[in-house]
Design a protein that fits this description.
The complex is a heterodimer.
Chain A: H1 6-21, H2 24-40, H3 47-66, H4 70-107, H5 125-141, H6 150-158, H7 171-179, H8 186-219, H9 226-257, H10 275-281, H11 284-295, H12 305-323, H13 327-349, H14 360-381, H15 385-397, H16 409-424, H17 430-435, H18 439-456
Chain B: H1 2-25, H2 28-35, H3 37-43, E1 51-55, H4 57-60, H5 72-79, E2 85-89, H6 95-103, E3 111-116, H7 123-126, H8 131-139, H9 146-154, H10 163-176, H11 190-199, H12 211-224, H13 233-248, E4 251-256, H14 261-267, H15 270-289, E5 293-296, H16 318-332
The chains are: A mainly alpha, B alpha/beta.
């Protein structure tokens, strides 16, 4: 079920109403059934994959906690990790691995017939496997008590607002939120409504209006002049931001209606002054996951500079691969890693120190970071290296060629609105910001956002980009 | 709290109603013109229009060798110069869409000419992949509040089935809809008939299988082999048009298009021709009884005047279009 569908806009109030009508001890059943229904709107049989993940990690959590020997704990943790990674690899990376194996064998002069798995990737698989794994790792580390109630644990993995595209929550956060005894409070409804409205605006009005232009240019880059290519590159930066940020905002709003707080996954990422800063503001829950469960176990920053640099490259490599089973995603991740190391090196070499205050220097650094990130997005958006090459060569070579042009006026307008909100909301979330305004301003904002959503949304109704991960 | 929430919901409703008014007076017309030009044309019909001709590709297609490139509707006007006629047409459209366009006409004409294409009653057309685009194009002009329609359009809330779903519906009809004949016929449904024709069918003089001819024959079977009855969704569309006609006092002429019956006979046989003629009779009788004028052009155009020889279409050369136009004019007066 898509957030931007009538189905969801009817489903959510129905679940919220029933949720508050039910006594607290039965609410987990409603959430469980509602989440199953939500997920089964995509491919019903795939719910079995989620059930498998739930059972494996629920049991793993219990046995890890009960085991006394560290070795035994490690074995159970390994079972959990291998099961999750195995499921992920099978569904997401099987064809990728097969085609790479084929290339290697062919390169070595051999003959290998790759078998192809002709299935649809279960939606959001990377998100719920990572979330579920974080639970068993935390139990293993002794930071989290194993959950005895299978229903609550199932809801942690399945919780419909965030199950398909995050944020990737820790059990210590979401688990306790799910157990909270919540009464219907007006503030929760108000905050939920604001977040959902703003999220729909960002997704449907900004992202879905930029998408057709980006798709058109990326489909045949050679036909466009350099200005159009440059615009498409910039538009994609805003499209993916609006798409993912919009999703996360709606997810937070939907959870808030049920009185549940989700962590913030974004903090004005395009106002970052460096790549390091960018990753502290973009998809925060994933960055946190990689830092806590990959980077720190590899030694983190308490190793030699060389080892640290290798660790950084490993993190960005895995992050790229996490996004998609293609080398273009890997290159996207690695480019971030390289720029990250380069910037950190320069900062160390010249002993540079930056303050978070608004200044001309920070503005220029922000512009620089935005253009670097936008350029690297080419590898994320292009389906193949050839396509990425076409985009880059057309960008460089087509300045004097009379290539096709597309109309951009409305796109720039929507980007302007998004940037305006980003600056406005640098230190505050939209729901809190609106809550601090007087009623006239608040309802004025609602009216403007509603007008945009109701009458100026894109007509393509595209699924959320991050659903594919 | 219930009081507070109710008060806010009422306020929200008032805002949305006001936004609907603003939308109607700002971007609605522009969006309608861009996304549904035919509906826009209906809404902006000039006052004093006598007749509106609703057509599809049969109206606009011509052969390169034609002495006249005028469309059927232009020829109707040519034969009746005093007639104030407006043409509204686009490709592969049908009654399921015309019925929405009719409701958009604030200035009612004296009569409307609606194209009636026998193939548009077939399963492959009813479940065609073009339907999504057509359904999308009428969403904005549906009778519900326009702001709601616009919102539903961006939520893709119109019939939007995948290619696989559409194909499965077509296959189901071909497999499950029994063909009824007053005589004995070996094939019970389209699927069986299609398989027989596809695997055997026509042979070349040297005894080998004539794939091209057999393929075309199967296409004719898929396009015309069905029994029409009131359960057919397209019949319901035409019935709705009749209801609109009665309610608004507008005369309706159904331009029943010519089909290449002679070619169907030579290619597939009398059984298919029987179905085609029986269905034609069903349409003529039903809608004449309901008060429409059915302009029966079904076998009016000669087989040599069909432009496409290798496909089932209602595309006629200049002579064919002229014959149809004259036939319409004779019923219009």
């Amino acid at each position: 079920m898509l957030f931007n569908s009538l189905h969801f806009l009817l489903f959510l109030p129905a679940v919220a109403a029933l949720y508050y009508l039910l006594p607290h001890k039965y609410r987990w059943i409603l959430l469980f059934l509602g989440s199953c229904y939500f997920y089964m709107a995509f491919v019903p049989s795939y719910i079995l994959i989620l059930f498998a993940i739930i059972i494996i990690d629920y049991v793993s959590g219990l046995v890890i906690e009960r085991s006394i020997k560290k070795r035994t704990k490690q074995v159970y943790l390994l079972v959990s990790i291998l099961s999750n990674v195995g499921i992920l690899c099978f569904f997401k990376y099987f064809n990728f691995l097969e085609s790479n194996l084929d290339s290697v064998v062919t390169f070595l002069g051999g003959n290998y017939k790759p078998s192809e798995l002709n299935i649809i990737l279960p939606i959001g698989l990377s998100f719920h496997t990572f979330q579920s794994m974080s639970y068993t790792i935390e139990v293993y580390r002794g930071n989290q008590k194993a959950e005895k109630h299978l229903g609550y644990f199932a809801n942690y993995v399945l919780f419909f607002p965030q199950m398909v595209a995050g944020p990737i929550e820790k059990y210590s956060q979401l688990g306790s939120e799910l157990k909270k005894q919540i009464s219907p409070i007006y503030d929760n409804f108000a905050h939920g409504f604001r977040l959902i409205l703003f999220g729909l605006f960002i997704k449907m009005t900004v992202a879905d209006n930029l998408a057709p232009i980006v798709n058109e240019v990326y489909a045949d880059p050679k036909a466009y002049n350099s200005i159009s290519i440059l615009n498409a590159i910039i538009f994609f930066s805003f499209q993916i931001y609006a798409d993912f940020f919009g999703y996360s905002t709606i997810a937070s709003g939907a959870a808030k209606l049920l009185g549940i707080d989700l962590i913030n996954n974004f903090r004005t990422p395009y106002l970052s002054i460096s790549i390091n800063d960018f990753w502290k503001r973009w998809h925060i829950s994933l960055t946190t996951w990689f830092r806590e469960y990959v980077f720190i176990p590899l030694g983190g920053s308490r190793v030699s500079t060389f080892k640290w640099a290798v660790n950084i490259i490993i993190i960005f490599f895995v992050s790229g691969l996490w996004h998609g089973a293609s080398w273009t995603f890997v290159v996207w991740g690695l480019l971030h890693g390289i720029v990250y190391l380069f910037e950190r090196g320069l900062t160390k070499l010249f002993k540079l120190q930056f303050k978070e205050e608004a200044s001309i220097i920070n503005f220029l650094l922000g512009v620089k970071t935005f253009f670097i990130v936008s350029f690297i997005w080419i590898f994320f958006r292009a389906e193949t290296f050839d396509k990425a090459k076409e985009i880059i060569t057309s960008l460089v070579n087509n300045w004097k060629v009379e290539g096709k042009d597309v109309i951009y006026g409305y796109a720039f307008f929507f980007i302007g609105v998004l940037v305006f909100f980003d600056i406005l909301l640098k230190k505050n979330r939209i729901d809190s910001w609106l809550g601090e305004r007087n009623e006239l301003v608040r309802w004025g904002c609602y009216s403007v956002l509603l007008f945009f959503v109701l009458t100026m949304s894109g007509m393509e109704n595209l699924p959320f980009i991050y659903f594919q991960f | 709290m219930i009081k507070k929430v109710s008060y806010k919901l009422i306020l929200l409703l008032i805002i949305v109603t006001s936004l609907n008014f603003i939308y109607l007076n700002t971007s609605y017309k522009h969006q309608l013109k861009r996304n549904s030009p035919c509906a826009y044309q209906c809404q902006n019909l000039p006052e004093g229009t006598d007749v509106v001709y609703f057509g599809e590709s049969s109206n606009t297609t011509y052969a390169d060798a034609d002495s006249t490139k005028l469309t059927i509707s232009e020829l109707v006007k040519y034969y009746n110069p005093k007639l104030n006629l407006v043409t509204i047409d686009t490709m592969a459209v049908h009654a399921g869409i015309y019925k929405y366009w009719l409701k958009e006409m604030y200035n009612k004409p004296k009569a409307v000419i609606i194209t009636m294409n026998l193939r548009s009653f077939s399963a492959s057309w009813i479940h065609s992949s073009l339907e999504t685009q057509l359904r999308r194009s009428v969403r904005l002009s549906r009778p519900e509040p326009k702001i709601w329609n616009r919102f539903l359009l961006s939520l893709k809330n119109f019939e939007d089935r995948t290619e696989a779903e559409l194909d499965s519906s077509v296959q189901k009809h071909w497999r499950e809809d029994s063909l009824i004949f007053p005589f004995k016929f070996k094939h019970q449904n389209v699927k069986q008939w299609d398989l027989a024709m596809g695997s055997g069918g026509w042979l070349k003089p040297d005894g080998s299988w004539d794939m091209e001819k057999s393929g075309l024959a199967t296409h004719y079977i898929k396009a015309y082999a069905f029994n029409l009855n009131e359960k057919n969704p397209r019949i319901r569309d035409f019935d709705e048009i009749m209801l609109w006609s009665k309610k608004n006092g507008v005369k309706v002429l159904f331009n029943l298009l010519s089909e290449n019956v002679a070619f169907a006979d030579s290619l597939v046989g009398k059984e298919l021709v029987y179905l085609m003629r029986t269905n034609k009779e069903f349409l003529v009788n039903r809608y004449n009884k309901m008060g429409a004028v059915v302009v029966d052009n079904f076998e009016l155009v000669d087989k040599t005047d069909f432009i496409d020889k290798n496909w089932t279409t209602e595309h006629y050369n200049g002579r064919g279009r002229m014959r149809i136009a004259k036939s319409i004019v004779s019923k219009l007066n």
